[in-house]
């Protein structure tokens, strides 16, 4: 069985800059999973620090309203990996999931760490590069010309163990013909 992970689509990130293209891509993939009655699991990053925008009590940590209604399951995490000290592994086992599709935010942290952790746990992993986004850019990393999403996608692709697609390739390879 396949499952979709929608990682950290939270107000603090989505409202940082214009992520409409990424949100549209994620929603398209979510709708395909819904048509096929496959699980859509949202991952929510939380922090105990009262001053953190990821503090559970703050509206900034909430799932973004544009996609929140699609969440079948919400798993809370405190680290970049959605597997580390969470219920995700148990939930995936209960559901009989063998293939995970990765979307969400921040590409180079939570999406990448989760994709690698999923592979390490024996899952087939598909990382949908243009259905991820990040608040960081070339200035953050002091690397002129860096496209964070493309860099992460390329590194994962080179691993030869994680399938990396863009939305168009996902549609061609996996999208339900009934949508």
UniProtKB/TrEMBL annotation:
Segments forming domain Isochorismatase-like: 3-141
Annotated Pfam families: Isochorismatase (PF00857)
Regions annotated as coiled coil: none
Keywords: Hydrolase
Secretion signal, residue range per the UniProt entry: none
Molecular function as annotated in GO: hydrolase activity
Keyword flag Hydrolase: yes
SUPFAM superfamilies given in the database record: Isochorismatase-like hydrolases
Similarity annotation: Belongs to the isochorismatase family.
Protein name, as recorded: Nicotinamidase-related amidase
């Amino acid at each position: 069985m396949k499952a979709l992970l929608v990682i950290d689509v939270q107000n603090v990130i989505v409202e940082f800059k214009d992520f409409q293209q990424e949100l549209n891509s994620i929603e398209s993939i979510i709708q395909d999973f819904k048509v096929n009655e496959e699980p859509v699991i949202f991952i929510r990053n939380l922090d105990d620090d009262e001053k953190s925008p990821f503090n559970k009590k703050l509206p900034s940590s909430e799932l973004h309203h544009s996609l929140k209604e699609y969440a079948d399951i919400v798993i809370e995490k405190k680290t970049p990996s959605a597997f580390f000290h969470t219920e995700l592994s148990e939930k995936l086992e209960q559901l009989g999931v063998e293939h995970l599709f990765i979307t969400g935010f921040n590409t180079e942290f939570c999406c990448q760490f989760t994709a690698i952790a999923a592979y390490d746990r024996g899952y087939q992993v598909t990382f949908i590069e243009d259905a991820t986004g990040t608040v960081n850019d070339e200035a953050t990393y002091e690397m002129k010309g860096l496209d964070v999403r493309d860099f992460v996608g390329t590194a994962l692709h080179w691993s030869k163990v994680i399938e990396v697609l863009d939305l168009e390739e996902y549609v061609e390879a996996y999208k339900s013909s009934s949508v």
